[in-house]
C-alpha cells in the first residue's frame, strides 16, 4: 500500500514559515559549517537550534540513562508520554539528525516530546557517537546497541517488545533506514520506520542537489562536508549501510512513513527510497510538504508544519499497528 499527497513541481513557492527561517539565518550571517571545524559547527548548531524549537511540551517524565555501547557508554534520554501505559507501551527509538557530525538529544527534544504524547508511547533518544572522531559505522553500532537494550530491558522500561518502531530525520533518517534493514531478520523486528527527509544515497548525484544546491538551508556543499567527515573512503559511498538506496533488496523492511520537503536537496533520494520500498512490497505512506525546506520538523517555533508532520507519522504508525487504541495525534 502506498499513499501520498499530490506531486508538486519544484517551482512551487517556499512556504512563508520556511521563508522566515531562511531570512533569519541570512540576517544572522551564520558561517557555513564547511568553512570551519566540526567543533565550530557543533557550537554554531547548539547556539542556533533554540531559536527554531517551540515551547517544550510537558510529558509524563523525562529521564537519562547510560548503557554500555560497543565502544564505550551511550547516553539515552527517555520520554514517557502523558497517556503512555505503565506496562507494555509502544516505543520509539528516535535518531536525531545533524549530518552525523552535529546534533544531540537536546537539539531534537521537541520532536521526541510530540511523539511521546501523540502516540502515548515511550521514546528513547540516544547520543550516538559523531563523526569525524567516530566514523562510519560507529553511529550505526551505537544505535543497534540501543535497540537491543530496548528489547532486552523492555520489562524495566515498560515496553512491549512487539511494538517498537524506529524514527529519525536527515542523517538520523539514514541511520533509521539502515537499522531497520539490519533488524528485519531479528526475532522481534521493528514494526515501523518513520523517516523525515532521510539521506539514502551518499553519492549525492540526484537532480534535487542541483535544483536546491544553495539558498534553501542545507546546501550541497554542506552535505558533502557532512558525508566526507562520516565516511573513511570513497568506497564507503556504495556500502548500503551508508547509502541504503543501494541495498540489493528492501524486502522484509518494516512499513515506512516518509516525509519529504519539496525544497530540499534530499527530496529526490527520499522519493526514490519510497519507490524502492514499494517495489519490494513494503507498505509505504509518503507525505510531501511541497513548500518546506530541509529540517522543517525541527522548526516548531515558526509554524504548524513541524507538529503536523509528526502527527502524520503517528497516524501512519497507528495504521501499521492494529494494537494501537485511542489515537492522540493531531
From TrEMBL:
GO terms for molecular function: hydrolase activity. The active site is at residue 170. Keywords: Hydrolase. SUPFAM superfamilies: alpha/beta-Hydrolases (SSF53474). InterPro entries: AB_hydrolase_3 (IPR013094), AB_hydrolase_fold (IPR029058), GDXG_lipolytic_enzyme (IPR050300), Lipase_GDXG_HIS_AS (IPR002168), Lipase_GDXG_put_SER_AS (IPR033140). PROSITE patterns: LIPASE_GDXG_HIS (PS01173), LIPASE_GDXG_SER (PS01174). Residues 24-60 are annotated as: Disordered. Transmembrane segments: none annotated. It holds the Pfam family Abhydrolase_3. Residues 92-297 form the Alpha/beta hydrolase fold-3 domain. It comes from the Bacteria. Belongs to the 'GDXG' lipolytic enzyme family. This is Lipase protein. It comes from Mesorhizobium metallidurans STM 2683.
Amino acid at each position: 500500500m502506498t499513499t501520498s499527497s499530490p506531486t508538486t513541481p519544484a517551482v512551487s513557492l517556499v512556504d512563508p514559515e520556511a521563508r522566515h527561517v531562511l531570512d533569519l539565518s541570512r540576517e544572522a550571517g551564520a558561517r557555513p559549517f564547511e568553512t570551519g571545524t566540526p567543533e565550530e559547527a557543533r557550537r554554531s548548531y547548539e547556539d542556533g537550534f533554540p531559536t527554531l524549537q517551540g515551547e517544550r511540551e510537558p510529558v509524563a517524565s523525562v529521564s537519562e540513562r547510560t548503557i554500555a555501547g560497543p565502544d564505550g557508554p551511550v547516553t539515552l534520554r527517555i520520554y514517557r508520554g502523558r497517556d503512555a501505559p505503565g506496562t507494555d507501551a509502544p516505543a520509539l527509538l528516535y535518531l536525531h539528525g545533524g549530518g552525523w557530525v552535529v546534533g544531540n538529544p537536546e537539539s531534537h527534544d521537541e520532536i521526541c516530546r510530540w511523539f511521546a504524547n501523540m502516540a502515548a508511547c515511550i521514546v528513547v533518544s540516544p547520543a550516538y557517537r559523531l563523526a569525524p572522531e567516530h566514523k562510519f559505522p560507529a553511529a550505526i553500532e551505537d544505535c543497534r546497541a540501543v535497540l537491543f537494550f530496548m528489547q532486552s530491558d523492555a520489562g524495566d522500561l515498560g515496553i512491549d517488545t512487539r511494538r517498537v518502531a524506529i524514527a529519525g530525520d536527515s542523517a538520523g533518517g539514514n541511520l533509521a533506514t539502515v537499522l531497520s534493514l539490519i533488524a528485519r531478520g531479528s526475532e522481534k523486528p521493528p514494526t515501523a520506520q518513520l523517516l523525515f527527509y532521510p539521506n539514502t544515497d551518499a553519492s549525492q548525484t540526484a537532480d534535487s542537489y542541483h535544483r536546491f544546491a544553495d539558498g534553501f538551508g542545507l546546501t550541497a556543499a554542506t552535505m558533502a562536508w557532512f558525508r566526507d567527515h562520516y565516511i573513511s573512503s570513497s568506497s564507503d559511498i556504495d556500502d548500503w549501510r551508508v547509502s541504503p538506496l543501494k541495498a540489493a533488496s528492501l524486502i522484509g523492511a518494516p512499513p515506512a512513513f516518509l516525509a519529504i520537503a519539496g525544497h530540499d536537496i534530499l527530496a529526490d533520494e527520499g522519493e526514490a527510497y519510497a519507490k524502492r520500498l514499494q517495489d519490494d512490497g513494503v507498505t509505504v505512506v509518503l507525505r510531501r510538504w511541497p513548500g518546506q525546506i530541509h529540517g522543517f520538523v525541527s522548526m516548531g517555533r515558526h509554524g504548524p508544519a513541524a507538529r503536523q508532520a509528526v502527527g502524520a507519522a503517528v497516524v501512519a504508525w497507528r495504521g501499521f499497528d492494529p494494537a494501537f487504541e485511542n489515537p492522540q495525534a493531531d
